[in-house]
Design goal:
Layout: H1 12-18, E1 23-27, E2 32-37, E3 44-46, H2 48-63, E4 69-73, E5 78-83, H3 89-93, H4 95-117, E6 122-126, E7 129-130, H5 134-137, E8 141-145, E9 149-150, H6 165-173, H7 175-184, E10 188-189, H8 190-196, E11 201-203, H9 208-219, H10 224-234, H11 236-260, H12 267-278
Parallel strand pairs: 2-4, 3-5, 4-6, 5-7, 6-8, 8-11
Antiparallel strand pairs: 1-2, 9-10
Helix pairs in contact: 2-4, 4-11, 6-7
Length: about 290
């Protein structure tokens, strides 16, 4: 008998309660875990707090050996189109501190955890219009609602698009399309995203979760070791991108953020910037 016992792994009933203000979690008996990000039950409103919670949640889910497939999505009819009105007060009070804590450290953890800390297959569901789509685009498989629009707003609010979205767009779109999308805030429809290889399937929003469960059921048809090792194979391009581009990209974004000496996440600023997406226009300047 060993002189030491294993350190206990996270318990689902406990961390589901810990993260309930940020994520609704349901896990089936076979270990397929559905995580729906939310803000007060509705679509995600970006804040320092939920930004940090994402990485914490992913690391915890990855540390629980009873999880077998992760389905990750947002809540409601949009993915993320607003910021919490008071969600960046901490950043505004002490920008140099939170530029590191929020923009650099937490951001790197979020993207890296999705790829490196989860040994299980992941299915991302883009449930509606939204920015920060990298979290679902960098899942192993991604489905989009048929009326969803993918876009990046960083440049339009005076921020450098280098917090992981650049990795997702460049890997999936290629250099030229990614450059256009990042510099112009191009609104990419779900159908166009499918044609360009950003997502795997486009389905009606009310069928997203059921379709994800069907795919998860197929994934679960093979042995645990096969599932987990196959995940490491299909994820290698993301791992290589992260090693090459993530830390440096975040460093560039952080420098630009601090150099401005002001927050770029104001609710009114973001709201006025994303109106063109809801209006069905391709860019904010057309």
């Amino acid at each position: 008998m060993s002189l030491q016992e294993f350190v206990p792994t996270p318990r689902f009933d406990e961390y589901r309660e810990v993260f309930k203000d940020f994520f609704n979690m349901e896990r089936r008996d076979d270990g397929v875990l559905l995580v729906e990000a939310h803000t007060q039950g509705g679509p995600i409103q970006l804040s320092v707090q939920n930004h940090r919670a994402l990485g914490q949640m992913l690391k915890t889910v990855g540390a629980d050996p009873d999880n077998e497939v992760l389905i990750l999505t947002g809540s409601g009819d949009e993915f993320m189109m607003r910021s919490d009105p008071e969600g960046f007060a901490l950043e505004e009070e002490d920008l140099p501190h939170w530029a590191y804590e929020y923009a650099y450290k937490d951001g790197r953890i979020n993207v890296s955890s999705l790829v490196n800390d989860l040994e299980i297959p992941t299915i991302g569901l883009f449930n509606g219009h939204g920015f920060h789509s990298e979290i679902v685009l960098m899942c192993d498989i991604t489905l989009a609602a048929d009326d969803a629009t993918i876009f990046d707003l960083h440049y339009d609010i005076g921020s450098v698009p280098a917090d992981g979205i650049h990795i997702a767009f460049q890997e999936l779109l290629g250099v030229k399309r990614a450059a256009y999308a990042l510099l112009t805030g191009e609104a990419i429809t779900a159908q166009k995203a499918l044609e360009w290889g950003m997502v795997n399937e486009v389905v009606p929003r009310d069928q997203l979760v059921n379709r994800a469960y069907a795919i998860a059921g197929h994934i679960m048809s093979q042995p645990r070791t096969t599932r987990r090792l196959t995940t490491q194979i299909v994820r290698r391009p993301w791992k290589q991108r992260i090693v090459s581009d993530l830390d440096g990209g975040f460093g560039i974004q952080m420098f630009g953020h601090v150099a401005k000496e002001q927050s770029v996440h104001g609710e009114q600023h973001i709201r006025s910037t994303v109106d063109y997406v809801r209006e069905g226009r391709k860019n904010n300047f057309d």
